[in-house]
Design goal:
The complex is a heterodimer of chains A (about 450) and B (about 150).
Chain A lengths: L3 H14 L1 H4 L5 E5 L5 E6 L14 H12 L11 E4 L2 H6 L5 E5 L5 E9 L19 E6 L6 H14 L3 E6 L7 H5 L10 H8 L13 E4 L6 E5 L9 H5 L6 E2 L5 E2 L1 H16 L3 E5 L6 H9 L4 E6 L3 H16 L3 H4 L3 E8 L6 H20 L31 E4 L10 H7 L2 H19 L4
Parallel strand pairs in A: 1-5, 2-3, 6-12, 6-13, 7-9, 7-12, 13-14, 14-15
Antiparallel strand pairs in A: 1-2, 4-5, 8-9, 10-11
Helix pairs in contact in A: 1-3, 5-15, 7-9, 11-13
Chain B lengths: L11 H17 L5 H23 L4 E2 L4 E2 L8 H11 L3 H5 L27 H23 L5
Antiparallel strand pairs in B: 1-2
Helix pairs in contact in B: 1-2, 2-3, 2-5
Classes of the chains: A alpha/beta (about 450), B mainly alpha (about 150).
Chain lengths: ~450, ~150
């Protein structure tokens, strides 16, 4: 009996062993439904000619083998094949989540695609492009409690102090709090992102757009920090609102918009209004619906992957990286990724450097096996710009950690704005310097 | 040559309701009017699932032509059950999921059964189709309560 993870490799193996039989019927779609069961889709033109009955028919034998070996993830032989008039449309439709089938050795099965039907909107691969007029940077972590939001707040503060117009979005909707730590209670706006997403469902988003941010001007070089919280000063029926933000919306002409497309529309409106030079987005941690939207759907120029050097962290990132590799979308995201080493030990001789080096090695292992191109000695390079590959020590590589040391001054503090306001610039720079310098470079400013 | 009369506008939701009401009239009579009840329970499932797919499956319904966009979706209860099971996705797929039974309850149901003799329609057969129609109707009722439909 096969379980979920064994289904596709096993199917690939069976299809390869019946290559001659299946060839006249290609292309083929493996449709995996929300229950994890598969049916095979082929063009309706074959419905009259395919032989699923005769004893010596290869297709009959193939069908029987699939049904025996992949049980219970396939039904009986009569229900394995479906004939589609619009097969090519399914293959070509960019809204259909699909990826090429490969076997256990990562070898592709030509002209066989998998359509994966998920019981949620988040896919971790619905990339949107060219929607940003500014520079969006996502702060993401596989695990919570790694100082991601604190780092974002400190960076936002420092960037504003250096003259940037910084728009901060608290998208950790299920664990909100960034704005509370960045803004004094008296400055909290009336509404937040959750309110906009709910009002937008009844075309009422414009009514609150002016009242969902607070600005903190800085005395330095005309910079500004504009904070958009998850909720307003009074959270109201937050749980009830949160339970609705995932709803799709419908445009006036009936076009369906996923919740993340609505979110993107909100961000575009905020960018248009505030004209930021950089947008910092605090994402939910883990493999989560909001995190999926933040990492893949918002056309971020840069995605920071906060990492403690732990087995759990790398197992989590490995799941994501392998998903991107398997689904053929690694090339769409790998150039935007950058590892941030979080809470690195700063006590003891050489501890910081050793921890950074160890983290770099583990990051390299995962990047090189899933996201970097393989180095093929003597091969003609398939990419115009050469392979996407980096050496372990390369300080500009995606796997090369921007290192943040653990600092008692920024640990477990309730009111970050007071702490930041009281901090000397060099204190923030001392802890978060590598990150701030990287962000300034992204903004096109001199560190 | 005579032109065909204009097609009445499609309304899967109301069609499901009226087929259900009439099927129950046949079912609740004594003796039960099994043959025609069976036919109508199939139509209940077809209309109910098409109503859900119109709302939940991107591009399912062609509003200009008043019918499903693709020929493959021009099917009755025996065909729509499989298509719904295999093609629904997104958050609503969990909310409006059909049971995962291995059996398509309408596998033995055909639209052409309307030409068959009443002797072929026994209680067991019709009850199975009625139970499946109730499952679909409950999903549709839930969608109406959630205002996903109409």
């Amino acid at each position: 009996m096969k379980t979920f993870d064994a289904i596709l490799p096993a199917l690939a193996g069976i299809l390869k062993s019946y290559e001659a039989s299946i060839k006249p019927y290609l292309p083929l779609i493996v449709n995996r439904n929300v229950y994890g069961c598969i049916v095979l889709l082929i063009d309706a033109c074959h419905e009259e000619t395919i032989d699923l009955v005769s004893d010596d028919s290869g297709m009959r034998q193939l069908t029987a083998k699939i049904c025996v070996q992949l049980k219970p993830h396939v039904k009986e032989p009569e229900r394995l094949w479906m004939f589609e008039d619009n097969l090519q449309l399914l293959i070509d439709d960019p809204r259909t989540l699909k990826f090429p089938l490969e076997d256990n050795e990562r070898r592709l099965i030509p002209e066989v695609y998998v359509i994966d039907r998920l019981a949620q909107e988040a896919t971790w691969e619905s990339f949107s492009d060219n929607t940003s007029t500014g520079t969006r940077v996502v702060f993401y972590s596989m695990k919570g409690g790694v100082g991601r939001s604190t780092a974002l707040a400190a960076c936002a503060w420092a960037l504003a102090e250096s003259g940037q117009r910084v728009l901060v979005l608290d998208l950790d909707l299920e664990s909100p709090g960034l704005s509370t730590s960045l803004l004094p209670a008296s400055r909290q706006p009336a509404y937040g992102i959750t309110d906009w997403l709910v009002e937008d469902l009844v075309n009422n988003g414009d009514a609150i757009l002016e009242q969902m941010h607070a600005s903190l001007g800085t005395q330095q070089r005309g910079g500004e920090l504009i904070v958009v919280p998850s909720h307003g000063d009074n959270p109201g029926e937050y749980v009830s609102k949160l339970g609705r933000v995932w709803m799709p919306g419908f445009t006036a002409d009936g076009q369906r918009q996923t919740w993340s497309e609505r979110l993107l529309r909100m961000i575009q409106q905020l960018e248009e209004k505030h004209q930021p030079t950089i947008v910092l987005i605090d994402s939910r941690a883990g493999i989560d619906e909001v995190a999926s939207a933040c990492v893949t759907d918002l056309d971020a120029k840069l995605i920071y992957l906060f990492a403690l050097d732990s087995l759990q962290t790398w197992q989590g990132y490995r799941i994501l990286f392998e998903h991107w590799r398997l689904h053929g979308v690694a090339t769409k995201i790998r150039e935007r990724l950058r590892v941030v080493g979080a809470l690195l030990p700063t006590w003891g001789d050489q501890a910081f450097m050793q921890a950074t080096a160890q983290l770099r090695e583990n990051a390299y292992l995962n990047f090189s096996q899933c996201l970097y191109d393989e180095e093929l000695a003597g091969a003609v390079l398939p990419l115009a710009d050469g392979p996407f590959n980096f050496d372990l020590p390369d300080v500009d590589a995606p796997h090369s950690p921007l290192a943040i040391g653990w600092n008692q001054g920024f640990a477990a503090i309730g009111s970050l704005h007071e702490r930041l306001a009281a901090s000397e610039a060099n204190q923030i720079e001392f802890v978060f310097g590598p990150l701030i310098d990287n962000l300034l470079a992204v903004c096109g400013a001199e560190p | 040559m005579r032109r065909p009369p204009p097609k009445l506008p499609t309304d899967y939701l109301d069609a499901m309701k009226r087929h259900w009401e009439d099927a129950e009239l046949f079912w609740n009579q004594e003796p039960k009017r099994l043959a025609n009840a069976d036919q109508l329970y199939g139509l209940v499932a077809e209309c109910g699932l098409k109503a859900l797919m119109t709302k939940l499956v991107h591009g399912y319904f062609d509003h200009n032509r008043g019918r499903p966009s693709y020929r493959d979706d021009l099917v009755h209860a025996d065909g729509i059950w499989e298509r719904y099971m295999n093609y629904s996705q997104g958050g609503a797929a969990a909310l409006y999921a059909l049971p995962t039974d291995d059996i398509n309850p309408f596998e033995q149901w055909e639209i052409d059964d309307r030409y068959a003799n009443r002797m072929h329609f026994d209680h067991t057969r019709v009850k199975g189709h009625r139970d499946a129609a109730i499952t679909v109707k409950e999903l549709v009722d839930k969608a109406v309560r959630q205002t996903d439909l109409p």
